[in-house]
Amino acid sequence: MTPDIVVTEGLTKRYGDFTALSDCSMSVVRGEVFGLLGPNGAGKTTLIRLLLGHLQPTSGQLSIDGIDPRVDGVELRKRVAYLPGDARLPRHMKGGAVLRFFADMHPSGNLDRSLEVAEILELNTRTRVAFMSTGMRQKLALAVVFGVDTPLLILDEPTANLDPTVRGNVLNLVMDAKRVGRTVMFSSHVLSEIEDTCDRVAFLRKGKLAHRLAMKDLYQRHRITALVDQAHANMEAPETIASRIHTTIDGQSVAIVTDGDLAPMLSWVDSLALSQVRIEPLGLRAVYDAVHTGQAVAL
Ligand SMILES: Nc1ncnc2c1ncn2[C@@H]1O[C@H](COP(=O)(O)OP(=O)(O)OP(=O)(O)O)[C@@H](O)[C@H]1O
């Protein structure tokens, strides 16, 4: 078994003159939770649909658990459970019947598990799909997907249309899947969800893989903001930490972005004549905004 469950190499999708995904090379490691971020139209769904064989790439290579989706779609279905962004479910059926239908259809389907997930998500499975709200239909689709025992779960905006409590329950299901060794790849516009669950994140921008990030590295980054008390204060950092510090001064305000262990940096910060010092984790938001606006990510 290879360590990577998803591998793409130069994956490209064009629609006429328009390139929806350009030269995308990435991998998802077995057992991790992998986040896909990017503004509307960045190419996230295009990438996901290419991985599932729903779209044919214009060029490039891809493999899912060693399978090329273009070659063996049947085998691929055994390995991947997929939640589309716009799940279409049979409107005339009741929730419970939908769960039974999909559990019977999939080789790794498990009705009991689907019903359990429906209960966790507080879904009334006696309601007919046609009479369900958008959020209820999303819960039903999630109960279908989490009821299937595949090594890989690909979820396109799994928490869209859900209230905060249920969103939390969905994220718990993602972490449960990880705990039993499954791999989860999901797209979301909610940065806190990605921060809370993902091991690694890829940022797409205008069809290009703009940035990759391991969350454990992000946790090592902090932003220190303060006011400089002395005019023309010497803000030069000692050589031992200078390469892991990025300082910007705007009038009296100073912003220091740090990378790595904070402890040795604090004694330097303490030696500066600063007031109103605030230290906070850099957070995904800062990285997202930098990538979104096409800036280099500090450090
Ligand atoms: N069949 C198609 N023909 C032409 N262009 C398309 C087609 N499907 C998607 N696109 C374009 O490809 C780009 C990427 O779309 P995609 O759905 O992958 O974005 P996304 O990152 O998932 O966006 P969102 O966050 O809004 O769901 C968009 O500009 C979209 O208009």
TrEMBL record:
InterPro entries: AAA+_ATPase, ABC_transporter-like_ATP-bd, P-loop_NTPase. Pfam families: ABC_tran. This is Putative ABC transporter ATP-binding protein YbhF. The keyword Nucleotide-binding applies. Belongs to the ABC transporter superfamily. Keywords: ATP-binding, Nucleotide-binding, Transport. Residues 6-231 form the ABC transporter domain. GO terms for molecular function: ATP binding; ATP hydrolysis activity. The keyword Nucleotide-binding applies. Coiled coil: none annotated. It comes from Rubripirellula obstinata.
